[in-house]
Amino acid sequence: MKDTNRARVMSSFTFMKKTGAIQLGPEHQVTVELESLTGSGAIILIDAPFSLPETFDMTIRHQRKACRVMWRMPNQVGVRFDEA
């Protein structure tokens, strides 16, 4: 595809920021941005990745997901969604 056609096609897309809400206690919730989201997991963008526990619940699009940390990097955490 030519660059001009690609630019026209890309300009027609609406990019929506994906967010999630991590529950860190009964009354403590943190809103985070999701870099990637699949049916089995997500990459979370977060300033303090080592502050998250190994397991936690996260709400995405009004659905609560049980999450397990698979890896941590500066400003990112990879999680797998556990079966309920």
Topology:
Blueprint: H1 3-11, E1 18-25, E2 28-37, E3 41-45, E4 55-60, E5 63-73, E6 76-82
Antiparallel strand pairs: 1-2, 1-4, 2-3, 3-6, 4-5, 5-6
Explained architecture:
There is one protein chain. With 84 residues, the chain is mainly beta. It has a single domain, classed as Thrombin, subunit H, CATH 2.40.10.430. It has 1 helix and 6 strands. The longest helix has 9 residues, at 3-11. The protein is globular. The termini are far apart. The relative contact order is 0.20.
Q: How many structural domains are formed by the residues?
A: 1
The amount of helix comes to: 10-25%
Order of strands, main sheet, comes to: 1-2-3-6-5-4
Q: Give the overall pLDDT as a whole number.
A: 85
The strand count comes to 6
Net shape: globular
Short overview:
The chain is mostly beta strands and 84 residues long. It contains 1 helix and 6 strands; from the N terminus they run αββββββ.
Q: What are its keywords?
A:
about 80 residues; mainly beta; Thrombin, subunit H; 6-stranded antiparallel beta barrel; about 10% helix; about 55% strand; globular
